[in-house]
């Protein structure tokens, strides 16, 4: 085997130098997934790299859930991630969550404010984006940039206390509005999100941004080398800024490497989640998925994935890795130990005319592979056998070496046979063959043009198999406007095969090579005792039809650049120029129906940003559900949402109702409650329900305000006006 491993890659060199120079007593790395989905094979590369680097130099690696966005994260994913990392064969020194450090991070935020390095800003997202300038134009400072530190500190505390609704304020770094690096132009460090977090519950309503939370988490854990993918290269300056301006106990450093992109699949958890949620695959562990769970279910072993990661190597140049590289690693892993068995997918019957009728003999045969003791089984042989339909050609084309009229082939582990007759059905298709067997040829050398797999028709058992091909029919599905349009319709074929009877003894989790068909894995979930379901892990060579792959191979000199999740989309630019948000612009650019709706509704509500957001986040799903939308109503609903008359849930209800919007708002009880009397009642009810917490709040535990605001939101079905609730609550407890 070619040694394609990249032992001397640049990161290993950096760590080796740091160790040699005594820069660190102990190497500490971390693997920091966001628990918003299951891990994929790209993560596998990062896991192998982080754990591999540390263990090679006697260090340790932490597993850290980067759980700073309460809206997307889930405990299910946390467990799935830990399971996958352990299954890959790595043990972490500590298992942490970024949310473990929320309190510390918040204290450092106050520190930044006091030191004049951060301020509370009330610009909207849109204003901030506009103020950030462009690559060629300096940013414009926020009007709040120079407010006194004491004022910012007070506001930050009130943000934490839940006094402001989402989006009303952010904490921004006071970095450098003229920096050539756009990331340094006073980036947000904290934002308000009145959302329940899967671990911290309702304790917080301000959440740190990735660029703030990540370096601090690294610093708290004493991480020495914080390794991430290249799209964070521009964030490094901010990473260093945060480390330099907070009184941290350790000074970690960030290094980047190229993320793994694999041919004909996608690596974005967000898009993989789309596949799962839209039912385009059977789940995160669908064997066609590039997830660790999917690959495991398919029958790939951890050893093959680690080997694959090693061979892919570590570099800073992005490229698209061929699926063959993965298939090769899988084959090489299974080859030395997987048993061999015989099964036929599409049978063509042969009558062996010199074999007695009704006689079946059984041949004791080792399971193999050669040199590996897997015990043995008996293979029955009778007068009727099945071979694979495609192993016979009545008029053999050039280069076809298998069975044809008059030809002699070997039946694996049995005799050589010579085809004497071809039988046809009424439609003129080959329906069977006759052959004679050389009964002295079993186990003896004999001249044959090929060796075929076969089964004894009288004793064959049925075996469920699942054959997988690539999930997508192009090399880079994530470069398509919509990856759904390039799903490979033949990515899974279920075939009930005819098999030698011994294969019924396969147990869930067993591997077997069905000779000439590929390596198979006995599905751990769907198999039953005596009824195995076999997933094809990989064929024995690359036999995927080449015609399936549409994109031409890249020229050797120009590696395909990995597609970043946030690559600019030129089609979206006109939308962005009109003031529509990034994400929304991207959607509108590729959805003509939605774009048309935008133009019509714009006549009613000419706020491009709010209208775009409304269409993408609310109207789109209504359209998908087949709701007929009246454009004037759409504009009005978007306007009422922007005016805070209704909330998002109310908007969804209205989209599906029919009358006059304003009349419906009241008829359906959707109006956001701003009436103080009504809100008082909610606040008092909430206090009455949690007397201990109320007492704690009154005695100064201001963090509980967020909890109570959240509780009032629940009680009011999300209709309470959060900022007013906060204000009333403060009035109440300060009396
Ligand atoms: P995705 O876009 O799939 O959600 P992500 O980068 O947002 O990926 P995280 O959970 O934040 O996912 O990633 C955890 C770690 O894995 C990060 O350090 C990230 O750089 C790394 N990683 C993610 N995708 C890849 C990849 N394709 N190749 C190598 N490393 C990756
Ligand atoms: Mg992510």
Short précis:
This protein is an alpha/beta fold.
Topology, please?
Layout: H1 10-20, E1 28-31, H2 41-56, E2 60-65, H3 75-87, E3 95-97, H4 102-114, E4 118-121, H5 125-131, H6 149-160, E5 170-173, E6 188-192, E7 206-208, H7 210-221, E8 225-229, H8 236-245, E9 253-257, E10 261-262, H9 269-277, H10 292-298, H11 302-312, E11 320-321, H12 323-334, E12 339-341, E13 343-344, E14 347-352, E15 361-366, E16 376-381, E17 384-388, E18 408-411, E19 416-424, E20 430-438, E21 451-452, E22 454-456, E23 461-468, E24 492-499, E25 511-514, E26 518-522, E27 533-538, H13 573-577, H14 582-589, H15 592-602, H16 608-624, H17 631-642, H18 648-655, H19 661-667, H20 676-689, H21 691-698, H22 704-715, H23 722-733
Helix pairs in contact: 2-11, 7-8, 11-12, 14-16, 15-16, 15-17, 16-17, 17-18, 20-22, 20-23, 22-23
Bound molecules: adenosine-5'-triphosphate (ATP) and magnesium ion (MG).
Number of strands: 27
Distance between the termini: 79 Å
3D shape: elongated
Percent helix among the residues? Answer: 25-40%
The bound ligands are:
adenosine-5'-triphosphate, magnesium ion
**Averaging pLDDT over every residue, what do you get?**
91
Task: Tell me the major beta sheet.
Answer: 7 strands, mixed
Structural class of the helices, strands and pairings?
A: alpha/beta
Strand order of the largest sheet: 12-25-26-27-23-24-13
Rg computed from alpha carbons, rounded to a whole number of angstroms: 32 Å
Q: How many helices does DSSP assign?
A: 23
Report low-confidence residues grouped into runs of 5 or more: 1-6, 542-566
Indicate the proportion of strand residues: 15-25%
